[in-house]
């Protein structure tokens, strides 16, 4: 089909691409998963007419594309993106309009447009080792000429993954027929697998899309249907042509061809938006609440952007067997898993709606800026969801995000070698920078800054600098930032570092002043990160004082302008506490002097506790134990901060304590202090769990349900007898079943308590279920059973028996992968790794021979058996083994040497902190008249 005559040449698109070459804050360019190599810029697109005809039953598609392009400089070569599996059948190039200087030199220019002329193609071929298609012309095309590139092609429909142009099927419950559907998922750079194109986000141009389909199916695309025409050569098939799109990137293309049913709604906004929610006919009834979620989200987002939803229609699909890891946010066509769309929460829907503005309407110029885009999408999704006042687990935001990045960025080596972890944690940190700016600039200023941005960049591309610039201009207009400060400076100090700061407040109570300092926050020992003294941030100092409690004013008293230390005057006297960074306004923990911490602990234990908002109560607890873990605060002070939990029932305030129990418990479980700590845990959690009850209540919040679940898990780990008895009762039903190998009727939550605290008979039963596990059942069930069998027991004899069977006997019931998994699980607790160490030492010669040709198992064994000790006793044990077998470690020699270095650091931690923890626990247990269980 020929290129539509109304496909206009958009010279502005070309000029935007060539002019916008400045560099923005580069998050993680060096680690990007997408090639940084751009297409040659000799030729750039002005618009497409794409025609596709998929054949879902047969698994392939055919298509044509006509691309209107402008020649930017004289060239014989036109280079496009294309997928390696695509077959290009025909190529043709014609000149629609010669360069402007040639038109002026022709008499015809005064009376009529020049006629298109064919340009001879010398060759069309794929470029080696690149996803490029090169079209070589016989003669040079001149700069300024406008060409039409025609390509006919065919390709395979993806079937095993939901990407590019893919197909899938479902069974019609009435007719029992297999029903096929076809759809697109183009992000981030998968359009090239569907048709040859300029598959870079900077090339935003209008598109006309035509889809061939059978009459029994319905085709949907980004824009409303313009016309339907019968196919000349295909009976019962038609062409659907859709209206021309606004300028958009190739990844925004959306197409679905299906026999789905839909629910239709009209939403009153500037564009009189038509909303359709699609699903297979027997599932559509589960989606009746989707429209309400969409309308509520759109109302908030349109008010936020002061720009209406940019297209005249929105189609939302619940796809059966959808295999992508996230929803597809094509412009105007959103694809979800059925469970995501029918669930009670709205977060998934809201996030994809945010992408309709950020990503589709305004598009990152290149992939580096996509990370800033993703971070802003995450923040606006959270902002919108909270505005909707949804009672869902998402309300843990931002604590869940904060806790994870505090942990990641405080490591000696953040992210390890994982690019994916680096990308996610960096994006999460940037999301929290946006949240910090929303607080410190004020929500009104922040919103108007975003409105400036979207108004300036809609239908265009942007750099991250554009966002910071618009926020700066608005902040200065509203007098929320000094003229010498820019948002770019503030943001860059956070985004370009793989670290976070800790702020320390040391008060001078005689002068009513305080010294506030910043340094790198390091949780893991040793604190020997290179160049840490050079790390400084722009930090907003928001302060709340006890004599004038006000958690609504988030305007900073002062900014630390990359200063190592500042002084604050006019603070309250020694009878009043202060809180810096309330509500986690900025992503950084705060330490205080002991007096201020003690005043906070006493206040939280009083009836006035709730005057401090729950997020701030959680922050104080989380900061205290993390700082203690890092060696910056006494554990006595940190444990004092848990005393208020006796009267606390908000899940958000409890959330940090479960991580504390887990981390501290694992760190001290090889010492005599551990039994006292478990008694403390039971005393802390038992009243809470008994009040919550064992069974969920109708209509209870997700937070309450999660609090019950978490408290039960940790009580079980600490030996809470009702929990153990409940687990054993459930487990007994499995033991008494006629054929226990047919399936496991016991909930996973009960298995570990039984293997940890139960009888030898119960543990032996679990072992037999692994040995006899039928191949017909899901192997992940066997894996979970093996993990708990190895990782949960307290009894060293059970662990030794498992090791004898799997390592020494070699009876064929356990694979090398099983053995590797067992070693890994035993490193999770002192009973496990101590038993493994003793087993290795006792059976060294036999094991060494067994693993002689299996270095991965040998290294894994030595690692799990030696690297996790944390006390002087453990250091002595490993040192003795090293001396005994110094020349025999082989490939694991580096492991044992590293283990000794790490254990020395852990031993220092234990020597410094265990006496303090034990002394505090002794006092706590004495006050509560409790004795540690044997």
Automatic annotation (TrEMBL):
Keyword line: Aminopeptidase, Glycoprotein, GPI-anchor, Hydrolase, Lipoprotein, Membrane, Metal-binding, Metalloprotease, Protease, Signal, Zinc
Molecular function GO labels: aminopeptidase activity; metallopeptidase activity; zinc ion binding
InterPro entries in the cross-refs: Aminopeptidase_N-like_N (IPR045357), Aminopeptidase_N-like_N_sf (IPR042097), ERAP1-like_C_dom (IPR024571), M1_APN-typ (IPR034016), Peptidase_M1 (IPR001930), Peptidase_M1_aminopeptidases (IPR050344), Peptidase_M1_dom (IPR014782), Peptidase_M4/M1_CTD_sf (IPR027268)
The Aminopeptidase N-like N-terminal domain, residue ranges: 45-251
Signal peptide: 1-18
Domain ERAP1-like C-terminal: residue ranges: 577-904
GO cellular component terms attached to this protein's record: cytoplasm; extracellular space; plasma membrane; side of membrane
Biological process, per Gene Ontology: proteolysis
Cofactor(s) in the UniProt record: Zn(2+)
Catalytic site positions: 352 (proton acceptor)
Cofactor note: Binds 1 zinc ion per subunit.
EC number(s) per entry: 3.4.11.-
Domain Peptidase M1 membrane alanine aminopeptidase, first and last residues per copy: 292-494
Bilayer topology term: Lipid-anchor; GPI-anchor
Localization: Cell membrane
PANTHER family xref list: FI02158P (PTHR11533:SF18), PROTEASE M1 ZINC METALLOPROTEASE (PTHR11533)
Family: Belongs to the peptidase M1 family.
Protein name as it appears in the record: Aminopeptidase
Organism: Exocentrus adspersus
């Amino acid at each position: 089909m020929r290129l539509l005559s109304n496909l206009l040449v958009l010279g502005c698109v070309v000029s935007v691409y060539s002019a916008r070459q400045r560099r923005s804050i580069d998050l993680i360019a060096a680690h990007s998963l997408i090639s940084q190599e751009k297409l040659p810029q000799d030729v750039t697109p002005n618009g497409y007419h794409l025609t596709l005809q998929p054949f879902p039953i047969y698994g392939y598609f055919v298509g044509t594309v006509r691309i209107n392009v402008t020649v930017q400089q004289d060239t014989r070569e036109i280079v496009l993106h294309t997928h390696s599996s695509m077959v290009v059948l025909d190529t043709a190039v014609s000149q629609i309009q010669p360069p402007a200087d040639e038109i002026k030199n022709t008499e015809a220019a005064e009376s009529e447009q020049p006629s298109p002329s064919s340009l001879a193609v010398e060759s069309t071929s794929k470029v080696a080792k690149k996803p490029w298609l090169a079209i070589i012309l016989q003669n040079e095309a001149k700069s300024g000429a406008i060409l039409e590139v025609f390509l006919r092609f065919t390709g395979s429909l993806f079937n095993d993954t939901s990407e590019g142009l893919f197909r899938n099927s479902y069974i019609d419950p009435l007719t029992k027929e297999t029903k096929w559907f076809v759809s697109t998922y183009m992000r981030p750079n998968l359009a090239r697998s569907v048709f040859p194109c300029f598959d870079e986000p900077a090339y935003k141009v209008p598109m006309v899309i035509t889809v061939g389909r059978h009459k029994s199916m319905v085709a949907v695309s980004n824009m409303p249907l313009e016309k339907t025409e019968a196919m000349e050569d295909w009976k019962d098939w038609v062409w659907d042509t859709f209206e021309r799109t606004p300028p958009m990137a190739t990844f925004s293309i959306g197409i679905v061809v299906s026999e789905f049913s839909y629910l239709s709604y009209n939403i009153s906004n500037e564009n009189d938006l038509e909303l359709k929610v699609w699903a297979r006919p027997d599932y559509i009834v589960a989606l009746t609440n989707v429209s309400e979620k969409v309308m509520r989200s759109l109302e908030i987002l349109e008010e936020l952007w002061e720009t209406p939803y940019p297209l005249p229609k929105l189609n939302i699909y619940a796809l059966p067997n959808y295999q992508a890891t996230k929803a597809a946010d094509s412009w105007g066509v959103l694809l979800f898993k059925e469970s995501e769309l029918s669930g009670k929460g709205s977060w998934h829907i809201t996030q994809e709606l945010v992408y309709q503005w950020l990503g589709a309407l305004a598009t990152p110029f290149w992939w580096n800026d996509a990370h800033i885009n993703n971070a802003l999408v995450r923040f606006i999704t959270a902002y919108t969801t909270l505005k909707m006042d949804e009672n869902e687990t998402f309300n843990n935001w931002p604590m869940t995000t904060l806790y994870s990045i505090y942990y990641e960025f405080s490591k000696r080596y953040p992210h390890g070698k994982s690019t994916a972890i680096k990308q996610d944690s960096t994006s999460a940190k940037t999301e929290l920078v946006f949240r910090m700016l929303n607080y410190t600039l004020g929500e009104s200023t922040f919103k108007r800054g975003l409105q400036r941005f979207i108004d300036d960049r809609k239908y265009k591309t942007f750099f991250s600098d554009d966002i910071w610039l618009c926020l700066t201009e608005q902040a200065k207009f509203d007098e929320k930032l000094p003229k010498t400060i820019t948002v770019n400076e503030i943001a860059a100090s956070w985004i370009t570092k793989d670290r976070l700061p800790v702020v320390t407040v040391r008060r001078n109570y005689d002068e009513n002043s305080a010294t506030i300092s910043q340094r790198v926050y390091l949780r893991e020992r040793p604190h020997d990160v290179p160049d840490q003294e050079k790390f400084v941030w722009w930090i907003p100092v928001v302060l709340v004082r006890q004599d004038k409690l006000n958690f609504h004013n988030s305007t900073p008293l002062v900014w630390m302008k990359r200063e190592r230390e500042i002084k604050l005057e006019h603070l309250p006297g020694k009878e009043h506490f202060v809180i810096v960074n309330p509500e986690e306004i900025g992503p950084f923990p705060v330490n205080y002097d002991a007096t201020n911490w003690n005043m906070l602990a006493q206040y939280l234990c009083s009836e006035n506790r709730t005057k401090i908002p729950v997020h701030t109560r959680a922050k104080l607890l989380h900061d205290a134990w993390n700082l203690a873990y890092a060696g910056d605060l006494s554990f006595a002070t940190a444990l004092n901060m848990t005393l208020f939990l006796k009267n606390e029932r908000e899940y958000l305030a409890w959330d940090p304590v479960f991580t504390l129990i887990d981390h501290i418990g694992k760190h001290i479980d090889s010492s005599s202090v551990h039994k006292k700590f478990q008694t403390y845990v039971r005393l802390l959690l038992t009243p809470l769990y008994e009040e919550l009850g064992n069974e969920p209540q109708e209509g209870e919040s997700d937070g309450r349900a999660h609090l019950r679940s978490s408290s039960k898990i940790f009580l079980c780990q600490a030996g809470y007898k009702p929990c153990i008895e409940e687990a054993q009762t459930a487990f007994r039903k499995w033991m008494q079943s006629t054929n226990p190998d047919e399936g496991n009727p016991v909930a996973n939550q009960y298995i570990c308590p039984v293997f940890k605290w139960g009888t030898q008979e119960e543990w032996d039963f679990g072992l037999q279920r692994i040995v006899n596990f039928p191949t017909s059942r899901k192997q992940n069930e066997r894996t979970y059973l093996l993990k708990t069998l190895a990782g949960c027991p307290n009894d060293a004899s059970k662990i030794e028996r498992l090791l004898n069977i799997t390592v020494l006997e070699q009876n064929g019931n356990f694979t090398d992968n099983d053995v590797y998994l067992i070693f890994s699980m035993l490193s999770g607790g002192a009973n496990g790794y101590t038993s493994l160490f003793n087993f290795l030492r006792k059976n060294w010669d036999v094991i060494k021979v067994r693993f002689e040709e299996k270095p991965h198992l040998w290294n894994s064994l030595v690692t799990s058996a030696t690297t996790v000790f944390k006390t002087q006793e453990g250091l002595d044990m490993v040192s003795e083994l090293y001396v005994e077998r110094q020349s025999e470690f082989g490939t694991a020699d580096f492991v044992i040497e590293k283990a000794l270095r790490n254990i020395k650091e852990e031993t220092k931690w234990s020597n410094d902190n265990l006496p303090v923890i034990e002394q505090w626990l002794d006092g706590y247990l004495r006050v509560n008249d409790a004795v540690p269980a044997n």
